[in-house]
Amino acid sequence: MMMPTNNCILALNMGSSSFKFKLFDASTRKMKISGNAKYSGGQFLTFDIKNFGDLQVEHLALNRTDRTGVIDQMIHWLKAHELEFPIVAIGHRIVQGGPKHFNPIIISKEVISNLQQYVYLAPNHLPAEIELIDKFSSAFKGVKQIACFDTCFHQHMPANARYYPLSEKYRTSGLMRYGFHGLSYEFIMVKLAEQILHPARKKIIIAHLGNGASVVAVKDGISIDTTMGLSPMGGLVMGTRSGDLDPGVLLLLMKQYGLDADQLDDLLSKHSGMLAIAGTGDVEELLDLEKTNLKAKEALSLFCYQAKKSIAALAAAMGGLDTLVFTGGIGTNSSVIRERICHDMSFLGIILDQQANHDHKEIISADRSWVTVCAFETDEEQIIAQHTYNLLNPKN
């Protein structure tokens, strides 16, 4: 039996291949407990509960390995521990809210209705996120729920980065470049400010590299461009997602192979990317395989090449680069991938300290590097909890 704690804010984060929560003290926003579902081979396997010291409290086998099963298991655990962790507010990471919603908002029937109108913009994410809201609304009646949108960070991108060269009628219906991973980017910006890393430097690139991957250019604190556009399928090649494609590829798949819209969606989001090249989209597995598997080597080479190209392009868009940050599961944990991306980037002033990179230090650039290179673990749940607190306590 855990000791009772103060009221808590619950932060929920449902990703493409992850599902986690964190409970924060509602007064201090200090993390109390976390839960993380392990995902592999297209299914969730186990659910681990850890305390604020990252020590495992419980290791749970799942009765069902699909997303609904994980949600039910999570709710069961939280309800069983309501006395220890009384929940007073719930914050959700929501992939996007269409052209109407960018800033955090208290979830109401009207908000849900608006989200349902824009499911076509994020069919692989919004339905599951709406289901999550419904389930927690039923389980924790009367507890306010807050939607925190991944697109919020990018809402002030200039027109030349935000809009596609298409008719105005499409733009007004929500067809634009939204950008994603915004909660992660927001946390990294807070982290940089706390570290007081070259406060006068104002040209920052953040590479969020995970199963979903994107890169953003931040100039004077504003996102001015990013690799993901209308949906999280765009930009870099990813674990199971294609990234950017020539529009002619889509037309060919439709005309030559007879794929309809749903089949294209399934192909480009779940069966493409490094998975399509090498049979797995897991970078750790690919690194183990590449010495004997040419396809694994090809997949990794493409991933690093596209990340390198995006960093250089975004540096050009800003007219220079002061700070480069790697984050996300791959960006934080893979020194090999960081080294490959930064190789031959000295023309931009990027030079790694090989030992610092190998030892997973937070600052991994060499003394002679013009650009400060960092590797920071992100914490989207911390930002969700902070937004939830701010919205419910506007005077503070």
Any overview of this molecule?
By secondary structure, this protein is an alpha/beta fold. 42% of the residues are buried. It is built from 15 helices and 13 strands. It is globular, with a radius of gyration of 21 Å. It has an eight-stranded mixed beta sheet with strand order 5-4-3-2-1-6-8-7, with helices on both faces. It has helices at residues 67-80, 109-117, 126-139, 159-162, 168-172, 182-195, 247-255, 261-270, 273-278, 283-289, 294-318, 328-333, 335-342, 354-358, 380-392, and strands spanning 8-14, 19-25, 31-40, 43-51, 56-61, 87-94, 105-106, 144-149, 203-209, 213-219, 222-226, 323-327, 372-375. Helix 11 (294-318) packs across helix 13. The chain has two domains: 8-149, ATPase, nucleotide binding domain (Nucleotidyltransferase, domain 5, 2-Layer Sandwich); 198-375, ATPase, nucleotide binding domain (Nucleotidyltransferase, domain 5, 2-Layer Sandwich).
* CA gyration radius, whole angstroms: 21 Å
CATH homologous superfamily placement of the largest domain: ATPase, nucleotide binding domain
Q: Stretches where pLDDT falls below 50 for ≥5 residues?
A: none
What's the CATH class of the largest domain, please? Alpha Beta
For the biggest sheet, the summary is: 8 strands, mixed
Structural class label: alpha/beta
- Tell me what portion of residues adopts beta-strand conformation: 15-25%
Shape category? globular
Cα distance spanning the termini: 33 Å
Q: Could you state the order of secondary-structure elements as H and E? A: EEEEEHEEHHEHHHEEEHHHHHEHHHEH
CATH topology of the largest domain: Nucleotidyltransferase, domain 5
Helix content: 25-40%
The overall strand count is 13
* Distinct helical segment count: 15
Q: What number of structural domains do the residues give?
A: 2
Task: Let me know the average pLDDT.
Answer: 93
CATH architecture of the largest domain: 2-Layer Sandwich
Q: Order of strands across the biggest sheet?
A: 5-4-3-2-1-6-8-7
